[in-house]
Amino acid sequence: MKAADLFDLARRNLRESLLRNALTTLGIAVGIASLVAMLSLGIGLQKMANRRLTRSGLFDTVLVSSRAEFRGFNRGLHPQATETRVLDENVRQEIAKLPKVVEVFPDIRFPTELGYGDKPNLAVIAGLPLSAAQNEALEGMHGRFFSGPQAAEAILLADFAKELNPEPAALIGQEITMNYPERQVLANSATPAGFSVVQRQRALRVVGIIEHEPYSGFRGMAHAGVFIPMPLAESLNVLQPGDLRGLAAAPDSSRRTFNSLVVRVASPNDVEAVETFVKQQGFGVFSLLDATRNLRRFFAVIDLFLGIFGSLALAVASLGIMNTLVMAILERRREIGIMKALGASDGDVKRLFFAEAAAMGILGGMFGVWLGWLLGRIINFGTRIYLQHQQLPSEDVWLVPWWLVAGAIAFAVAVTLVSGLYPAARAARLDPVQALRYE
To answer: How far are the Cα atoms of 5, 383, 391, 395, 399 from residue 387, in angstroms, in the given order?
Structure first.
C-alpha cells in the first residue's frame, strides 16, 4: 500500500468517528500540556535561580587569602605548596593574567568613626568595585551608583542609614565625614621597614541606599555599612588590620600586602581552574562552587519529579488511545476483512492503525504544547501581579525552550505509537473470512 493511500485512508477513518477521536486527541493534548507546564516551571525556576545567583556575584567569585588567614582550613591549600608567599600586588597581577579572569580587587574594609550631624557613629567602610553596579544587591537602590572611580561618594546600607536618620531616603545628597588612619611609609632611608599612622578626614556625599550587602556571602564585606568606590579606597592607603603581619612577612614597608583578594571569573565553570592555580601558589581559596553543584543536583531532581507527575496525565491519555483503536477494530471488522481479501498484508493493516495513532499524537502534541504555553503565560502574568503587590521585582518563573517543544511533540507521537501496538497487532491477526461474516 502506498504511503499516500495509507494516510488518506487513515484521515478518512479518523473523520468518521470525529467526536470520539477528537476527545482522545484532547486527552493527549491535556497530558502534553501538563507535562510541558510542569517541566517549563522547573526550567524557569532554575533559570531564575541561576540568573539571580550570577547577578549576586557569589558563584563566579573566588576569595584568595594567605595561609595565615586560612589557619585551620587546610583543605583550601595545595599539598605541594610548601612555601608561603606574600599576598601583594605581584600576586594580584599574576592572577589577573589568568584566562577567564575578569577582575581582581583587594578586600579593603576598615572600622572608622563616621561624623554626621552632631554625633559620631562607628561604622565599617568597604571598597566596592565599579563592576558591582550590576550586582543583584543594588536592584531597587534608592539614589544612584558612584559617578566615578575617585568620586568622594558613599552608598549606605539601609540598616546603618536608619541609625543616622530614621528616614534613610533623606540622607541622599547629605554629607558625612569619614575619619580613618592613613598608613605612611617612614622617610628614614636607613631602613626600608616600618610605617607611621596619620589620622585623616574625608568628606563623602551619600548617593544611594541599598537593602543588602553586595557579595554578602564572603566575609570581607558582610558586615560593612558604608561603601565607597574601590579605586578611591585603594588611594586612601588606609591602615588594614593585617598590615603588621604583612610587615613581618615583607620587611619592605613600601611593598603593600593584602589581607585577601577577590577574583571574579567569566563563568562559574572557570572557578575550579582559578582555585587550582591559587592553591599551587601557596594561598588559601574559598568559593561557593560546591553550592552550585548542589543547586544543579537539586533542580535535576525537581525536573525529574515534575516530568514524572506530568507524564501521568499522558499515561491516562494513552489508555484512551488504546480504547479508541480497539473500538475501531470492532466497528471496522468488515472493512479490515475486505482490505485483506483484496490483498492487503498484515503489515499494511498495522501501518494503517499506526498512522491513525501517529496522527492523533501529532495533533494532540501540537495542541498540548500550545495549551502548556498558554498556561505558562497565565502563570507568569499572575506571578508578576503578585510580586508587584509584594513590592518585589517582577520575575518570569515559566520558560519553554525550543527543545522542549520538539521533545514534547515527539514524546506524544512515541506514546501514541506504543499505545497502538496492541490494537494494530490485533487488527492484523483478524481472519478475513471471519471478519467478512461479522455483523
So the answer is: 56, 6, 6, 8, 18
Contact residues for 423 (Cβ-Cβ < 8 A; gap 6+)? 322, 325, 326, 328, 329, 353
User: Percent of the chain, pLDDT > 70?
Assistant: 68
- Average of pLDDT values for 360-381? 85
pLDDT for residue 372 is more than 60: yes
CA angle 388, 389, 390 (to 5 degrees): 90
Q: What are the phi and psi torsion angles at 432 (to 5°)? A: -60, -30
pLDDT at 76: 47
Q: Letter for the amino acid at 379?
A: I
Give the domain ranges of the chain. 3-54+294-437, 60-107+258-287, 108-257
Beta strand residue intervals within 234-383, DSSP E: 260-265, 284-286
The three-class DSSP label of residue 275 is helix
| Beta carbons within 8 Å of 35's beta carbon, 6+ residues apart | 307, 310, 311, 313, 314, 368, 372, 408, 411
* Residue (of 188, 90, 208) closest to 145 by Cα position: 208
Question: What is the mean predicted confidence (pLDDT) over 34-59?
Answer: 72
Instruction: State phi, psi for 148 to the nearest 5 degrees.
Output: -170, 170
Is residue 38's pLDDT more than 50? yes
Nearest to 37 by CA among 266, 372, 286: 372
If you classify domain 60-107+258-287 with CATH, what class do you get?
alpha beta
What phi and psi, each to the nearest 5 degrees, are found at residue 60?
Answer: -115, 30
Query: In 235-290, where do the E strands start and end?
Result: 260-265, 284-286
Tell me: the pLDDT tens digits for 336-356? 677 767 777 777 777 777 787
**Tens digits of residue pLDDT in 55-74:** 656 677 888 887 555 444 44
Mean pLDDT for the chain overall: 76
- 160-169, 194-203, 271-280, 313-322: which range is least confident on average? 313-322
Cell triple for 44: 524557569
Say which amino acid occupies 155: I
Q: Which residues neighbour 428 within 8 Å (Cβ) at sequence distance 6 or greater? A: 346, 347, 349, 350
